[in-house]
Amino acid sequence: MGSLKLHHELENDSHMMVIPLDPEEFRRQGHMLIDFIADYYQNIESYKVLSQVEPGYLKKLLPESAPYYPESIETILQDVRKYIIPGITHWQSPNYFAYFPSSGSTAGFLGEILSTGFNVVGFNWMSSPAATELECVVMDWLGEMLMLPKSFLFKGTTCEAILCTLAAARDQMLNRCGSEKMEKLVVYGSDQTHSALQKAAQIAGIHTKNFRSSHQNYEVKLVHADVEAGLVPFFLCATVGTTSTNAIDPIGPLCEVAKDFNIWVHADAAYAGSACICPKFQATDSKLVVDYKDWQITLSRRFRAMKLWLVLRSYGVANLRNFLRSHVKMAKLFEELLRNDNRFEVVAPRNFALETRKKEVLPWPNDNNVANQVECANELNKKLLESINGSGNVYMSSTMVDGAYIIISIGQSPQYALGQGPDC
Amino acid sequence: MGSLKLHHELENDSHMMVIPLDPEEFRRQGHMLIDFIADYYQNIESYKVLSQVEPGYLKKLLPESAPYYPESIETILQDVRKYIIPGITHWQSPNYFAYFPSSGSTAGFLGEILSTGFNVVGFNWMSSPAATELECVVMDWLGEMLMLPKSFLFKGTTCEAILCTLAAARDQMLNRCGSEKMEKLVVYGSDQTHSALQKAAQIAGIHTKNFRSSHQNYEVKLVHADVEAGLVPFFLCATVGTTSTNAIDPIGPLCEVAKDFNIWVHADAAYAGSACICPKFQATDSKLVVDYKDWQITLSRRFRAMKLWLVLRSYGVANLRNFLRSHVKMAKLFEELLRNDNRFEVVAPRNFALETRKKEVLPWPNDNNVANQVECANELNKKLLESINGSGNVYMSSTMVDGAYIIISIGQSPQYALGQGPDC
Q1: At what angle do helices B23-42 and A23-42 cross, to 10 degrees?
Q2: Of A197, A388, B78, B335, which has the maximum CB count within 10 A?
């Protein structure tokens, strides 16, 4: 490319034979990489799904400093095979049932690669109109698919959505009741609310003693108590599909109370696969174009729409729906197997077909002390999960609910079927 | 892949012939995409560097809803050529001299593709040890290259770095002087400080009337005035290489004052190419492993280290240094051309060899009113830049300094030479 050739001519250093963006070299190395990744997926089931490395393994294997002279792509890919792949927990493996569901799809990957290839910095409309406008278009498509009103706004990540809405709600409330009330502001969530809420509240400057983590939807009582104590409730996070038990908070009743006290209700449906929810900012109303930098924490924005566009077009709404239905079927099948096995107990209703849980309940300890029984059951469940994950053949996660240790097996989620990346 | 074949078997819907992660299909489409991007760079100089589209152009060209049935990758890539490329401002073009420098490199792209390919969600060590550990290794490499002390910590983006340090400084100060002082906290920057500071202050809950944007380093006077007024100065952002004039704030003197009042000094060197600066959080000291989710706003983290690793290894420190030196030479050359042309004036010193500026000063209007002269010169500069950018052959940006409209031409930056993406 012009500028790089010029810089090449300016240099007489023999090491400067490298031209950072030579199209033919990109082509050669790019094809190698595509084959590398295709081979990885061809063989993914042969790897231990949960990485078996010890903390600090990589530092011992790699040099202490960056290389002074260039190394070939062949050498580098060899090291990826030898040093990196053993340290990877294979999220896209069919044997992966922990944390979030697998999200990979060919179309999703190609969209990422294309977005990377153009490498535009979409911080305002002019900086690359197509990046902003394609995002508007595919977000409308997605909103329609989710049957969301037009006024909804999509944020980059769940964490960012919660922080931005929390800051907006905070300023709205302070405008109403005066900035001196800042330290009186109270945020509400349940003990199953995602940790992103607590992090967001801290960043937004909400006093830690004013963060309420309610047990079993006692938010309403807490709100009344806080108001009597002279505090200012302003933000309530209800969850549609908690990460732990996939529970659904009673949004209706919560909104009723919220209305009485002008509390902003944020419905976090990220895990259940709905897009992030956040009322449209007034600032953008009158604008001819959208500058995404005003909607988010960072200035610039990846050409992320390219990815969703490719996913929606490559599979079509029909396939994406079928894809989810098929995973509902798989989850139901798995649930049936568990219900017909008296060693296991399904301890939470299967919502969204994203999860089933199993809990070892036998054998009981030989005494009538319930506490001991629970403790023993927890111990057995823990051992069971350790042996399952230790094998490296399957990876599942766990949670604690009402003092009970529960094993979680996670299926596919709409969000991921739509090919969203790991920015959650 | 297993799970997907199973889900395929569960479905009798003819549309479900698509298998989202079939390695051979990924291989076929991946190779097509690599050629598509290689061809894009082969022809990049043939495109108008600044997109010539009108706002709303894309909505008219694309369907109102997501397609119900799948479309082929061939069709999609055809649409990318027809509808997307005309709407792209070509940041990687050798004719692009606006905003940030071009950042693309083959190794950077391959690193992104590899990171995308593994698609791991690195929110804690266990979720993919290699992602966390490789980041530690390459950040040490980079720190050594930049001769930074070991205690430095790298954030995902400049904006995130400023917000996280601001929140940490805020809580540190409130612990010292009491949370009721929240609305008294004052943040200081210069009128050339990046807008990220103001955004961060707003998110962190700093009262808007307590945000000081000082002109020509009057921060010291402002601090004394605020202390006398009973306010609490707590955060000062000094910039090493402002985005507008690439000016360097007098860090030494500022730190002296800051020390007297326990003010946290944040040095923003993002644009000058240094990595983000942010004191190590105490919380991570005792940990055996690092959980990056505790260091950032979002929960998860891309496998970004893969990109920097490939860049450092593919080019080596020697080439990266030469790469920067060659751009210093180009900037010097350009500056000489301007100095030898009496129609132009270089109005700000060329720092870091990242920029030169030129300002149309002739012809002067035929009166002695200086205000009119400045206005007229500004008008001429504006017209000049519009005609340059309007041609679509070159893209440059502008800034206002002391009421003067100045045209900016931006070269290459170390940060970008290191292959960092557009997440700044």
Answers
A1: 170
A2: A197
Selecting from A297, A302, A329 the residue whose C-beta is nearest the C-beta of B160 gives A297
Statement: residue B250 has pLDDT above 70 = yes
pLDDT at B407 over 60: yes
In DSSP notation, A91-158 reads TTSTTEESSSPP---HHHHHHHHHHHHH----SSTTT-HHHHHHHHHHHHHHHHHTT--TT----S-H
* Alpha-carbon distance A158 to nearest alpha carbon in chain B (angstroms): 8
**Looking up tokens 């929960």, which residue turns up?**
B299
Of B275, B302, B307, which is closest to residue B132 (Cα–Cα)? B302
- Residues A65-99: pLDDT tens digits? 888 888 999 999 999 999 999 999 898 888 888 77
pLDDT for res A366: 55
Residue of B nearest to A200 (CA): B297
Residue type, B260: D
Its sign, for the CA torsion A119, A123, A127, A129, is positive
Q: Which residues pair with A406 in a beta bridge?
A: A399
C-alpha atoms less than 13 angstroms from C-alpha of A341 in its C-beta half-sphere:
16
Give the gap in angstroms from C-alpha B150 to the nearest C-alpha of chain A: 13
User: Which of A202, A313, A322 faces B15 most closely, judged by CB atoms?
Assistant: A322
**DSSP structure class, residue A53:** P
CB A66 to CB B138 under 8 A? yes
* Predicted confidence (pLDDT) at residue A40 exceeds the cutoff of 90: yes
User: CB-based contact (8 Å) between A286 and chain B?
Assistant: no
Average of per-residue pLDDT across B256-274: 74
- Which range of A199-208, A305-314, B232-241 scores highest in mean pLDDT? It is A199-208
> Nearest Cβ partner of A110 from B30, B126, B319?
B30
- Structure pTM? 0.77
Task: For residue B214, give the H/E element and its range.
Answer: strand B211-214
Confidence of residue B10 (pLDDT cuts 50, 70, 90): very low
CB A398 within 8 A of CB A381: yes
Alpha-carbon distance A48 to nearest alpha carbon in chain B (angstroms): 12
Predicted local distance difference test score (pLDDT) of residue B37: 95
| A-to-B residue pairs, Cβ atoms closer than 8 angstroms | 495
Interval A300-305 mean pLDDT: 67
Q: Which of B99, B121, B208, B394 to mutate to test the interface with A (most CBs of A within 10 A)?
A: B121
- How far is it, in rounded angstroms, from Cα B263 to Cα A177? 29
- Among residues 381-400 of chain A, which lie with CB inside 8 Å of chain B? none
Taking the Cβ of residue B337 and every Cβ of chain A, the question of whether any pair is shorter than 8 Å is answered with no
Q: Would you call A337 an interface residue with chain B, using a CB distance cutoff of 8 Å?
A: no
Out of A15, A53, A76, closest to residue B314 by CB: A76
Q: What is the pLDDT of residues B310-327, one digit of tens each?
A: 887 888 877 777 777 777
Instruction: Round the average pLDDT of chain B to a whole number and report it.
Output: 76
Give the CA count within 13 Å in the CB-facing half-sphere of A196.
30
Q: Which two tokens stand for residue A360?
A: 């070892």
What value does the mean pLDDT of chain A take?
76
Who among A45, A133, A319 is closest to B59 (CB)?
A: A133
Report which residue type is found at A252. G
Q: A402 in the Ramachandran plot: left (φ > 0), alpha (ψ -120 to 50) or beta?
A: left
- Is residue A153 scored above 60 in pLDDT? no
Q: Where are the beta strands (DSSP E) in A240-368?
A: 264-268, 355-358
Q: What is the ipTM of this complex?
A: 0.77
B53 touches chain A (CB under 8 A): yes
What pLDDT is attached to residue A87? 92
Inter-chain contact B66–A315, Cβ cutoff 8 Å?
Answer: no
- Asked if A418 and A323 count as a contact pair (C-beta separation under 8 A), the reply is no
Looking at the predicted structure, is the pLDDT value of residue B5 above 70?
Answer: no
